[in-house]
C-alpha cells in the first residue's frame, strides 16, 4: 500500500503554516523594544561624544600651544637673543625655527622614501606570495616590531648602526661626492642625518606594512581571478588589480608613518649631532636637527622665555602634522570613487 497525502489547504505552504504566519515576523515584547531603543540611543550618543572629544582635545592642544608660545612670538629679537641661551646664534624666532623645520621635514621624507618601497614589497609578499603559515608568522613579527620602544631603536642606531654604516657613507662621499647630497666632509662617527633616516625608516616600516597588508587583502577575489583567467602573470595581476585597489590605503599608511617620523624624539636625539643649517648634506656632521629632538635637548635648562620658544617650535610641528594629515585626506578623497565592486 502506498501512503497518500492530501494537498495543502489554500493559503498555506508546505509545512502546515499559513502564509501570513510564516511571512509576518512575530512582534517582540514591548519591554524588549524599549530596552533596544534605549541601548541604541546610548550607543549613538556615546559615539557622538567620543568623536566630539577628539575635536575638543585637538582644539585644547592648539589653544595651549598658541597661548604658551605667545610670549616668544611677541618678544623682540633682542629680548630673545639676550634672554634665551640656546638662541645665541639666531637673529630672530623665525631664524631659529626655520632650520629646525627644515631638518624635521628632511629626516621624515628621507625615512618615508626608504620605508615605503620596502613596506609595499613586504605587504605584497605576505598577502599574495608567502605560504599561509609563513605569512602568519611574518605578519606577527612585523606587528611585534611596532611595539619596540623608540629608545631601543635610538640605542641600536647610535651603538650598532652608525659604526656599521660609516664605511658605506665614506664610500659614497669618496665616489659620489660630486652629488650634492653626498658632498662635504663625511662624519667619522656615522651619526648623521642619513643614519637617522635609516633608523626612522625601520621604525615606521611596521605601520606602513601592516596597513598596506590589510588593504591588499581586501582586493576583490573576482578581480584577481579574472586577471589570471585572461592569462596575466601573478605580477601583472598585482599591477592591474591589487595596486590600483590599494593605492589610497597605501597613501594613508604612508601618511601615518610620516606622522610618526615627524614627531620622533629619542631615536633622533641619541644619534644625530646637532646643527642649525639649511643643508642637504646627508653625510656631514653638525648640519641638521629636528624639532622634537631639540625640545628634548633644551627643555631641562630652559628659562620661562626659553620654554616659550620651545613651545613655539612645537606649534610649528603641530601645524606641519596637521597639514600632512589634511593633505593625506585630500589625496584619499580623490580616490574614493574607486571601488572593488566597480
Automatic annotation (TrEMBL):
Pfam assignment, any one: BPD_transp_1
Where located? Cell membrane
Q: Which GO terms describe its cellular component?
A: plasma membrane
Please state every residue range assigned to the domain named ABC transmembrane type-1. Answer: 101-328
Q: Where are the transmembrane segments?
A: 42-67, 100-126, 138-171, 191-211, 265-285, 305-326
Please verify whether the record's keywords include Transmembrane: yes
Q: Per the annotation, which location comes first and is thus the protein's main one?
A: membrane
A biological-process GO annotation: phosphate ion transport
* Superkingdom, taxonomy of origin: Bacteria
List GO molecular-function terms, semicolon-separated: phosphate transmembrane transporter activity
Region (Disordered) spans which residues?
Answer: 1-32
Q: How does it sit in the membrane?
A: Multi-pass membrane protein
Keyword check for ATP-binding, yes or no: no
Keywords per UniProt: Cell membrane, Membrane, Phosphate transport, Transmembrane, Transmembrane helix, Transport
**In this entry, which stretches build a coiled coil?**
none
Task: Family membership, please give it.
Answer: Belongs to the binding-protein-dependent transport system permease family. CysTW subfamily.
Q: What does this protein do?
A: Part of the binding-protein-dependent transport system for phosphate; probably responsible for the translocation of the substrate across the membrane.
Q: What is this protein called?
A: Phosphate transport system permease protein
Please name the source species.
Cellulomonas uda
Amino acid at each position: 500500500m502506498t501512503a497518500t497525502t492530501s494537498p495543502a489547504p489554500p493559503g498555506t505552504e508546505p509545512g502546515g503554516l499559513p502564509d501570513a504566519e510564516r511571512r509576518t515576523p512575530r512582534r517582540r515584547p514591548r519591554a524588549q523594544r524599549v530596552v533596544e531603543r534605549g541601548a541604541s540611543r546610548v550607543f549613538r550618543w556615546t559615539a557622538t561624544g567620543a568623536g566630539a572629544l577628539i575635536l575638543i582635545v585637538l582644539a585644547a592642544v592648539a589653544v595651549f600651544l598658541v597661548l604658551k608660545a605667545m610670549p616668544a612670538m611677541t618678544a623682540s629679537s633682542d629680548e630673545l637673543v639676550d634672554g634665551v641661551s640656546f638662541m645665541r646664534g639666531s637673529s630672530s624666532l623665525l631664524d631659529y625655527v626655520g632650520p629646525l623645520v627644515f631638518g624635521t621635514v628632511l629626516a621624515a621624507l628621507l625615512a618615508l622614501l626608504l620605508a615605503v618601497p620596502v613596506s609595499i614589497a613586504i605587504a605584497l609578499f605576505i598577502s599574495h606570495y608567502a605560504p599561509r603559515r609563513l605569512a602568519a608568522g611574518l605578519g606577527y613579527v612585523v606587528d611585534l616590531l611596532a611595539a619596540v620602544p623608540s629608545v631601543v631603536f635610538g640605542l641600536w642606531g647610535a651603538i650598532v648602526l652608525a659604526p656599521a654604516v660609516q664605511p658605506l657613507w665614506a664610500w659614497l662621499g669618496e665616489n659620489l661626492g660630486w652629488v650634492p647630497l653626498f658632498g662635504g666632509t663625511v662624519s667619522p662617527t656615522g651619526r648623521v642625518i642619513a643614519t637617522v633616516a635609516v633608523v626612522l625608516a625601520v621604525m615606521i616600516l611596521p605601520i606602513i606594512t601592516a596597513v598596506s597588508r590589510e588593504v591588499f587583502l581586501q582586493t576583490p577575489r573576482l578581480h584577481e581571478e579574472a586577471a589570471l583567467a585572461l592569462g596575466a602573470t601573478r605580477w601583472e595581476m598585482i599591477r592591474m588589480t591589487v595596486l590600483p585597489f590599494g593605492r589610497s590605503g597605501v597613501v594613508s599608511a604612508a601618511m601615518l608613518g610620516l606622522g610618526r617620523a615627524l614627531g620622533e624624539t629619542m631615536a633622533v636625539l641619541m644619534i644625530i649631532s646637532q646643527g642649525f643649517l639649511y643643508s642637504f648634506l646627508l653625510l656631514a656632521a653638525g648640519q641638521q636637527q629636528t624639532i622634537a629632538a631639540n625640545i628634548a635637548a633644551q627643555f631641562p635648562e630652559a628659562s620661562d622665555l626659553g620654554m616659550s620658544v620651545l613651545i613655539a617650535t612645537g606649534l610649528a610641528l603641530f601645524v606641519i602634522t596637521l597639514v600632512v594629515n589634511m593633505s593625506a585626506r585630500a589625496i584619499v578623497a580623490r580616490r574614493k570613487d574607486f571601488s572593488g565592486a566597480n
